[in-house]
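INTERNAL AUDIT FORM
Audit reference: QA-55
Scope: verify that the stored structure record matches its stored sequence.
Auditor: D.O.
Record contents follow.
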Amino acid sequence: MKLDGKTIYAQSSDIKARTYLEYRKDMKKKAIVELEVLDWLENKLKELYPGNQIKVYKSGGDKFLWFLRKGGISREPDFIAEIDDKKIEFELQYTEKEDLKYYDFKVSKVIKRKNKNLTPIENKFFLFIHKPFLKFAIFTPEWIIKNGEYGMVEAWRSYAFRVPKEKFEKLLKPDETLKSICEIIDAKIVLLNFQHSLIDITKDKLSHILQNVIDENKIVKIIPQDLDSFFKVCFILDNINRIPQNANLWLIYLLSYINNNILLEDIFKITYCIDFLYSKIKLKENELNQLITKVKELMKKIQNFYQSDGSYRSSLTLSPLDETRYALFSINLLEDLIQDMIYYYSVSELKPIKKIYENVGDVGKTYRLIKEAL
């Protein structure tokens, strides 16, 4: 059977759970912490090394990427610190739990094989932040080996160096400046969880379509003739792990929906579809240039809908909370796209993302709006 570029053919056996955005959500939580801690770490090192030239940055610099297209976790260190002419790697770990019996450290981050022997990784430090205690510690892999025990961590299903609570917590030092850092981290994670619920909300709305595919074992055929149907097609394709033919053409066609009349719900649908199609294709130069222009345009439109109370509003018929969710979801994906294009296409026309949700008008106000409503 010859497949048409605008036709989707799916059997019930093709239905798969959506995992890519879930993976990215988990990676985003880690990135939120890392990017909020970066300036704090630089200031802390300036205290510890007075008179030295200090610079701290993410591995990869402006090309730092918080998720990998094909999944997995980067083995790059979390931070690079330049102290005068010397470069030191920093690995960040943090906990939100108060009652830990052991503090665990992955073997691969502590030791490496050198001349057939396992030795502590040199020129590397760990930064540990204990959020409930508002305390921190900076220590070496050698300290972990000396004070830890090699044992199984059931949650990781692997062995690790486990430092007993009694030894580790003696190392922690209080720092009141961590309070504001932890508060903004908590606020941004609330924003992330709030906006991500759109995935489940959309699944519920489209459940009748997905259910028909599963229960009736029929071929699904949806032609994207307008933005709403385009979104439904991309969402279903995403959930059955299929890619449209001529996906590059789909992307360019999708960009034509961006105009002066679109509202936040439209922007959410467009951004979701862009993200879905972008991740499946290799862009040509003219396609990349069009996408760069439209990403800038979408971000500006969202920012224009920001209100002084922390909400986003573009419609008189939708609730401010729903519209704020659309805005946050779109900002989240657009920041991903910006950083991804910088990483994979060496784009210089876009400003690198320095902190997650940096394009939100006022994170604190939006956080309070959400907390009061939930």
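Auditor finding: record pair retrieved intact. Confidence is low (pLDDT under 50) at residues 1-18, 213-222.
Action required: none
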